[in-house]
Write a structure and sequence with these properties.
Layout (H helix, E strand, L loop, with lengths): L29 E2 L4 E2 L4 E2 L10 H14 L4 E3 L4 H18 L4 E7 L2 E6 L4 E6 L3 H4 L3 H5 L6 E8 L2 E8 L8 H4 L4 H4 L11 H11 L6 E10 L10 H4 L2 H4 L5 H7 E12 L6 E11 H4 L3 H13 L2 H7 L5 H10 L36 E7 L3 H15 L4 E6 L5 H13 L4 E8 H13 L7 E7 L2 E6 L4 E6 L5 E3 L6 E9 L4 E6 L1 H5 L1
Parallel strand pairs: 13-14, 13-15, 15-16, 17-21
Antiparallel strand pairs: 1-10, 2-3, 4-9, 5-6, 6-7, 8-9, 8-12, 10-11, 11-12, 17-18, 19-20, 20-21
Helix pairs in contact: 12-14
Length: about 525
């Protein structure tokens, strides 16, 4: 049995994330539901833990969901997994907190859920949303403090196809829905080169039911702000400049070490992978009261390479945090010397330099040529000559997918294709990415698609603020005016192939205004 932690137990229950004086990305997984003893106490006895912020955090989640429904998504094929997640978490809660929560099977698919902490008693039929009163993931995230993402495993890949994520740390759940695990982690520095992400992916695919694992991840947040999602960047982004100018006592009070305890659970009935994200925050002034934590965090921050600090969004105040912690004790932290090379972001699409070969094993072939660029026409003609010798071939020539007629023509053509067709697209980056996204939407898979980009000057940009995709002239790292909301936004080196766009959010000067 697990007891509800009082407010005074926040430090004792904090999941301090640094086992060494140096931090690098790693899979760092361990079996779950085992106490992890720290210098201040322990954490992790249960998969789902409740503390004194329970009601406040659930109320904040409800407000966020009411204001922004994109934080909640369940693709149609994930509905069974959502029910599986609900029942799994109810069982975890009832086991950990039997005095306050219980789950009773009334017979067949009929269940009764009781949560005394919220004054909740609900009878429902498994699989029947009307009896529950709302979608299962929406309901269960009104009972737990964790964010939830559900991953579907197919074609040897994991796809984030459902979830409720209200407390994201500088990422956008709405943008990432439908992306693969590897695509989502594309922008993270080092993880591909060092093999971390592929090892993590392989580990997740091997997870078995009833064998939960956990890991920690960390960053820093200014103020006790749970929702630092990309969509809310204008609210919290300016704090990164503000914090550089505050007095030392205020710095230690405002800067929080933010730790996510992430549980990895294979659901028993649907086979989906459930990813639980529980966020804990501790201000530096409280962290410094635990001497081993103070000393180690100071060394980790001081030594952290710039590319990792930049990705975590802490590079503007990382050094001051290290110095603040060093000054809070007697030890002297040496200056960090980073000699590891910084590699370009892997979050960008990789376009071939020459038109790829036609996959002649296709049952039929659709070649889509978009735009007036001579190289576009040449690539299309080359593909047509090869495809015609292999099977039925159709050439569709369009001007631009920004025009309604051309967009409708392409979508209609996709709808007429049969299984086994090969789709080959050439044109500008905007037109190619958009055409590929629509092909995915029509049911195509990656193995059926081939692309050749002849012009990189434009791209499809998903604005996190007006939540729409637009054609813009620009490149990742650049700042443009959003055609939808007129906000100045930065285009990030993070693209969603199935959404067909790059993510963008308010640029620094826009967030500060």
């Amino acid at each position: 049995m697990t007891t509800v932690l009082p407010m005074s137990g926040r430090i004792a229950a904090f999941p301090f994330p640094f086992p060494e004086d140096r931090y690098r990305y790693s899979t760092n997984v361990e079996p779950a539901a085992r106490p992890n003893v720290t210098a201040a106490g322990q954490w992790g006895a249960a998969v789902v833990e409740i503390d004194d912020d329970y009601r406040a955090e659930l109320a904040e989640r409800a407000e966020i969901l009411a204001a922004d429904p994109t934080r909640h998504a369940v693709l149609p094929h994930m509905r069974p997994a959502a029910w599986d997640a609900l029942l799994t978490l109810m069982r975890e809660l009832a086991t950990a907190y039997p005095g306050q929560m219980s789950l009773e099977q009334l017979g067949g698919d009929e269940w009764r859920w009781r949560n005394e902490l919220l004054g909740e008693c609900r009878d429902f039929r498994y699989g029947d949303e009307a009896s529950l009163g709302q979608e299962p993931l929406a309901y269960i995230t009104s009972q737990v403090q964790e964010d939830i993402a559900l991953l579907d495993q197919r074609n040897d890949q994991l796809y984030v196809d459902a979830g409720v994520v209200t407390f994201a740390a500088d990422w956008s759940f709405g943008f990432d829905v439908g992306m693969s695990f590897l695509e989502i982690h594309g922008p993270v520095p080092r993880v591909r080169k060092e093999g971390v992400i592929t090892r993590a992916h392989d580990f997740l695919k091997r997870l078995q039911p009833h064998q939960p694992y956990r890991r920690t991840n960390w960053t820093m947040t200014i103020g006790r702000r749970l929702d630092v999602s990309t969509e809310r960047y204008p609210d919290w982004g300016p704090d990164r400049e503000m914090i550089r100018c505050v007095p030392d006592d205020e710095f230690g009070r405002l800067v929080h070490l933010r730790v996510e305890v992430q549980h990895l659970i294979r659901l028993p009935d649907s086979g989906a992978l459930m990813f639980l994200i529980r966020t804990y925050m501790l201000p530096l002034e409280e962290l410094a009261t635990v001497e081993p934590w103070r000393a180690r965090a100071a060394k980790v921050f001081a030594e952290l390479p710039d590319d990792m600090a930049d990705y975590k969004g802490i590079i503007k105040y990382r050094d001051r945090a290290a110095q603040w912690l060093a000054a809070a004790g007697e030890s002297v932290v040496p200056e960090a010397v980073v000699t590891e090379p910084v590699t370009p972001s892997p979050g960008l699409p990789e376009w071939p330099a020459m038109p790829p070969e036609v996959d002649v094993s296709g049952a039929s072939f659709l070649i889509v040529s978009i735009g007036q660029e001579p190289r576009t026409a040449h690539a299309a003609r080359t593909w047509v000559r090869t495809a015609e010798s292999a099977g039925p071939t159709r050439l569709l020539v369009l001007d631009s997918l920004t025009t309604a007629a051309d967009a409708a023509s392409l979508r209609q053509t996709y709808n007429e294709l049969r299984t086994g067709s090969r789709i080959l697209v050439t044109g500008s980056q905007y037109n190619v990415m958009t055409a590929l996204a629509w092909a995915y939407d029509a049911g195509a898979i990656s193995a059926e698609l081939t692309a050749f980009v002849t012009d990189l000057s434009d791209l499809p940009m998903y604005c996190a603020h007006c939540r729409d995709t637009h054609r813009v002239i620009g490149a990742p790292g650049g700042v443009v005016e959003c055609p939808g909301c007129a906000r100045r936004v930065e285009i990030h080196a993070h693209h969603a192939p199935r959404l067909g766009s790059f993510l963008a959010s308010a640029a620094g000067e826009e967030a500060s205004s």
